Amino acid sequence: MSLRLQAITREEHLAFVRTRPAASHMQVPSWGDVKPDWRAESLGWFDDGGDGHGAGGGGRLVGVGLVLLRPLPKVKRYLAYLPEGPVIDWHAADLAERWLEPMLAYLKTRGAFSVKMGPPVVVRRWSADAVKAAIADPAARRLGDVEATTYEPDAVGVAERLRRMGWRRTEPGGEDGFAAGQPRYVFQVPFAGRSLDEIRRGLNQQWRRNIKKAEKAGVKVVRGGHDDLPAFYELYAETAERDRFIPRPLPYFQRMWTALTAEDPDRMRLYLAHHDGDVLAAATMLTVGSHVWYSYGASTSRKREVQPNNAVQWRMMADAHELGAAVYDFRGITDTLEESNHLLGLLRFKAGAGGEAVEYLGEWDFPLNRLLHKALDVYMARR
């Protein structure tokens, strides 16, 4: 029997997320406040046939999702997007009938013409040593073509169920594996069951040397607040120019800080590396449950020899460990291994922290109205 799906309050949504070991930071209610161009709604899956009038109508809440609704220009129809979600039992044998069909039916009544989601399902992993060997191998062009260290057998079944329903994987539209949506490949350092000394020993020699250099040079990493976001932004704008990406505006980060910290004071943190009165590097850190993400990083080209980036990362890793993190997540990496690729340096930096490259199932689309879905594809391609 399919589950009952309905809109729920932010409080119900957040209470459910708190019962989970972790969920994506894009699946908490406050993330909707970060995206004012979208209309956000919290969805709840209930495990019995209540009367449909709120949680009080009966039933136990067994899954949640933050759906962002983006209006199509000139018509009252929406693209429905559940980034890195929803938070449901992805490995259920009856995933289609019990979980996803009610979601599609509900979103259709909300005026959605297309649904996009990002199942938080891991497909395979490559150890840091395997990534290092792949980068050194001139025959290896893409990480996805290299033998993985471990495979998650259940992921194939999830993908098969989605295809049978009519879902289609979104092909990466961005550069070098960085899609317009959320990254399919990320780099993570497992923390569960490891002491901070063990994590430090897992760093490569270059990382350990750079952390020591920063300490010796007198780099001080401090936690900042809302008033320090302009200092972060100055470095971020410089980083964007240097690394050839389009920066988000300062008000985006200010809105992000206000929204996330109102929900939980530790949801978002800001760290800044100071040296002799200069701010040389800064980064934001996000936390939901036992999962911690390095979110945005920024640095100046000045005084790079004092290694402020490694200093910031190590402080964040130490603080994440103290918070009880099971995973420290460096977020997106390129899956392109060619030496000419300007993102390869970032992959090398992240792989130096030990840990593993992780491939997720990627983002998937379901067209509820094929004509409007196709029109959106054409519009996005022209952009």
Automatic annotation (TrEMBL):
* Classification via InterPro entries: Acyl_CoA_acyltransferase (IPR016181), FEMABX (IPR003447), PG_Glycine_Bridge_Synth (IPR050644)
Q: Which GO terms describe its biological process?
A: cell wall organization; peptidoglycan biosynthetic process; regulation of cell shape
Which UniProt keywords are given for this protein, alphabetically ordered? Acyltransferase, Cell shape, Cell wall biogenesis/degradation, Peptidoglycan synthesis, Transferase
Pfam families, per the entry: FemAB (PF02388)
Coiled-coil intervals, chain numbering: none
Keyword match Nucleus: no
Q: Which PANTHER family match?
A: LIPID II:GLYCINE GLYCYLTRANSFERASE (PTHR36174:SF1)
Q: What is this protein called?
A: Peptidoglycan bridge formation protein FemAB
